[in-house]
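Exercise 7.
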Amino acid sequence: LINLCTAPLFGVAGDHWLLGTRLEPLHALCCAIILLGVSQALLARRTTQATLSGSRVTGCIAAIVAGFGQGTGASLSRWVHSAEQTANTLLPSHAESFLRVVPGLLIVSLFWLVMRQRRAAGAEVPAWAAERPLAMRPALWVMANATFGAVLGVPCFQHSLTQVSSAVALSITATTPIVVMPMTAYSEGDVPSARSMLGALVAVAGVVMLK
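Solution. The predicted structure, written as tokens, is:
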């Protein structure tokens, strides 16, 4: 929730700093409605009981850092696209998405190597890093995530940044948990409450108002 709702704010700041653009008042209102609906939908969820581990402060800081990366990353993409237009060397969205994914792949690979070395050295592995059984074969989940995320989702996101501001694009992507709600209700029994459904409707209404 922190990640999704802070990313548009960092996107606004990044667009203003890098491109000198400001968010239109009506767009700002619609984005605020979207984030309000998303926050209500997530805060009102009837989640299953889970054992908390680690520091909540650390988690909040990590979420803010993630929101900063998402927001400023979108602004940098728009800034680079503007430079491409000036140089008349426009890259297609799928090429931009590939360049966007590669650094993340390198960082995750480095993290994986560190965790593997820790396991080899006999160090205690955090509970969240332990392998958990999945309802489907892991390979299917990985392929589905890669297909709808990096292969299809990221190019669409990159293309949206050529049409609208970072705040607008990030506010729409913030509705991802709402799209996932039926899936979690089916797979985890996480049935949304009436307040959560109302928040989802408010968020969708904000997206419609953007048009």
